[in-house]
């Protein structure tokens, strides 16, 4: 199994910018992506995903933006934590002694 390579944000931005600026010189966007991916040193599929993300983030393509996806992820994590805390509180209240509201 190959180890995934981490590309810096600058490399990603430059590669996407190259595709956007030069895609008119190619028969299709995919042809531009294939050509530029070789020059950058990544796979065409990796560059295609960067381009699609850029298109969503700039409103050129339908879909969830990076910021929206991060917000959803954060809210889901918070929801899990709150559910876990709620379960702990339910269990703790089940074992706490009950107080009688009427005095004898």
Report on the architecture of this protein.
It is a single chain. The chain has 104 residues and is an all-alpha fold. The longest helix is centred in the last third of the chain and has 30 residues, at 66-95. It is elongated and about 80 Å long. The chain folds into two domains: 7-63, Arc Repressor Mutant, subunit A; 66-95. It has helices at 9-22, 29-40, 44-57, 66-95. The N and C termini lie far apart (74 Å).
List the helices and strands and how they pair.
Blueprint: H1 9-22, H2 29-40, H3 44-57, H4 66-95
Helix pairs in contact: 1-2, 1-3, 2-3
Summarize it.
The termini are far apart. The mean pLDDT is 91.
Quickly give the CATH architecture of the largest domain. Orthogonal Bundle
CATH superfamily of the largest domain: Winged helix-like DNA-binding domain superfamily/Winged helix DNA-binding domain
The largest sheet, given as strand count, sense and whether it forms a barrel, is: none
Secondary structure category: mainly alpha
Shape assignment: elongated
> What is the gyration radius calculated from CA atoms?
25 Å
What is the top-level CATH class of the largest domain?
Mainly Alpha
Strand content: under 5%
Termini distance?
Answer: 74 Å
State mean pLDDT (0 to 100 scale): 91
């Amino acid at each position: 199994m190959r180890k995934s390579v981490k590309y810096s944000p600058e490399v990603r931005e430059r590669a996407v910018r190259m595709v956007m600026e030069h895609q008119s010189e190619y028969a299709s966007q995919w042809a531009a992506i294939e050509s530029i991916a070789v020059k950058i040193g990544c796979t065409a599929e990796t560059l295609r995903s960067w381009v699609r993300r850029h298109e969503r983030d700039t409103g050129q393509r339908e879909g969830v933006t990076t910021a929206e996806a991060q917000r959803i992820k954060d809210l889901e994590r918070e929801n899990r934590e709150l559910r876990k805390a709620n379960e702990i509180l339910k269990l703790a209240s089940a074992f706490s002694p009950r107080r009688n509201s009427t005095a004898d």
